[in-house]
Design goal:
Its cofactor is Zn(2+). Keywords: Hydrolase, Metal-binding, Signal, Zinc. It contains eleven helices and 19 strands. It is of the alpha+beta class and 431 residues long. It has a six-stranded mixed sheet with strand order 1-2-6-3-7-17, sandwiched between helices. A four-stranded antiparallel sheet has the order 4-5-19-18. A hairpin with a 2-residue loop joins β4 and β5. The protein is elongated and about 85 Å long. It starts with a helix and ends with a helix.
Length: 431
């Protein structure tokens, strides 16, 4: 984040923290009352959706959750459709619900139907534990999906959806986006281009009791090192036979660690294979290596993850990495390649404005100030594909813990809070 945006954010949060909570309008009070009155049914909907396994590769399960939520949007008067992906992509598809009007801002609401828990996962589908519930995807992100539906339901009940333009897209492959992403995210980008603001409902984060919105996310990318050495008897290492591929790989990675350092930048060599024979299966993320201790390794492969704040940081990082790779040890050589995946969600004045409006809605509802989560504190998310085209805010979903683990759980009351904040924000944006 540059200094100007940083000061703007600090000012916005400071002003929000010191502001006196404004009163809700009579219509907004009715919206809140509708959400609170319907909270038991919201929890029942979450339970119903959680009891359907919808791991990304369980296409039948993803479609079943999509059908469940589609019924809700149909009842709210949205036009709904299921968008299938090409069979070769091996993804279930996406649910889209739309309505068109001429009043206020045009909104795009994003969620996802899939979870990381595939058919054979041992984690419980649903276990109610007092005011919390444990289950597959309850916070990431079926709780957020339910919050979207509940916010829109309350707006419908008070007549506030009339003449508004709202698009909702629940993807079926957020946890493992289908390739090519130009196809799997094509419809999302097209919706964004016809919208003014995008809101994402990934799980809400709290710090020291304060809710935090997401105005930026780092891009995700990958790098691959292909290292070659001179195969020879190990007695010649460090001398005429050179250093071999494994030492060269180690030199490169350690130099990265020491010299390629910037705030918000990370890179992780997740897999390394070296020896005289190396094979790696990209589709299944596993490989094998053969070698002997008395033979200098002639090949090494490194697969890594790269995360950056913006394209300028990406370009600087890649240039410096290439320079380091080119400084080969005797008897070795290497090449590095990069592959972009998710684009960055840059921190922009527009994003900060949406956060300010969301925080004000929260304060007016008596739910407190919403702060800003650093971009490096969140992983990749669908909203990154639309952020280049539209002002965006993410992290508006339910609060929980243990995401992507057998202990994933959701604070059930957070669904009501998320729905209230969202409904008031949507109401104000669409006036």
């Amino acid at each position: 984040m540059n200094r100007k945006l940083g000061l703007a954010l600090a000012l916005a949060i400071s002003c929000g923290a010191n502001a006196t909570a404004g009163a809700l309008s009579p219509v907004e009070q009715r919206i809140v009352a509708e959400i609170k009155a319907h909270s038991p049914q919201a929890i029942a909907l979450l339970e119903q959706s959680a009891k359907i396994n919808s791991g990304t590769m369980n296409h039948e399960g993803v479609r079943a959750v999509g059908a469940l939520f589609r019924q809700q949007f149909d009842q709210l008067g949205f036009k709904t459709e299921w968008i299938d992906m090409p069979p070769e992509m091996q993804r279930a598809g996406h649910l889209v619900a739309t309505r068109e009007g001429k009043q206020g801002k045009r909104l795009l609401l994003l969620g996802h139907l899939d979870t990381v828990f595939e058919r054979d996962a041992k984690s419980p589908l649903w276990e109610r534990q007092g005011e919390r519930a444990r289950g597959q995807g309850v916070s990431d992100m079926k709780g957020g999906d339910v919050a979207v539906i509940e916010a829109l339901r309350a707006l419908k009940q008070v007549g506030a959806l009339e003449n508004t333009t709202i698009s909702v897209m629940f993807t079926g492959d957020e946890e493992e986006a289908g390739n090519p992403k130009s196809i799997s995210r094509r419809d999302m980008v097209e919706l964004a281009k016809r919208s003014d603001i995008a809101l994402g409902f990934e799980g809400a984060v709290t710090r020291d009791g304060q809710a935090m919105g997401t105005v930026g996310r780092r891009a995700t990318a990958s790098f691959e090192l292909d290292v070659k050495g001179h195969q020879a008897h190990s007695a010649g290492v460090f001398g005429s036979a050179g250093y071999g591929a494994v030492y060269e790989a180690a030199r490169i990675l350690d130099t990265f660690r020491r010299e390629v350092v910037e705030p918000g930048l990370t890179y992780n060599p997740g897999v390394i294979l070296g020896g005289t024979e190396v094979a790696y299966d990209d589709a299944n993320s596993r490989g094998s290596a053969f070698g002997k201790t008395n033979v200098i390794a002639n090949t090494a492969t490194v697969k890594g993850d790269l995360r950056y704040l913006d394209y300028a940081q990406r370009d600087r990082t890649q240039a410096r990495m290439r320079e380091i790779v080119a400084q080969s040890l005797p008897g070795a050589s290497a090449a590095i390649t990069f592959h972009d995946s998710y684009p960055p969600m840059a921190v922009t004045p527009g994003n900060l404005k949406v956060l300010e409006q969301y925080s004000q809605a929260s304060q007016d509802a008596g739910l407190g100030v919403v702060g800003s989560l650093p971009a490096e504190a969140r992983g990749a998310g669908d909203i990154q594909f639309v952020a280049p085209y539209v002002d965006s805010l993410d992290g508006l979903g339910a609060s929980g813990s243990g995401a992507h683990s057998p202990n994933e759980e959701v604070e059930l009351a957070s669904i009501e809070r998320a729905a209230i904040r969202t409904a008031i924000l949507i109401y104000r944006l669409t006036r």
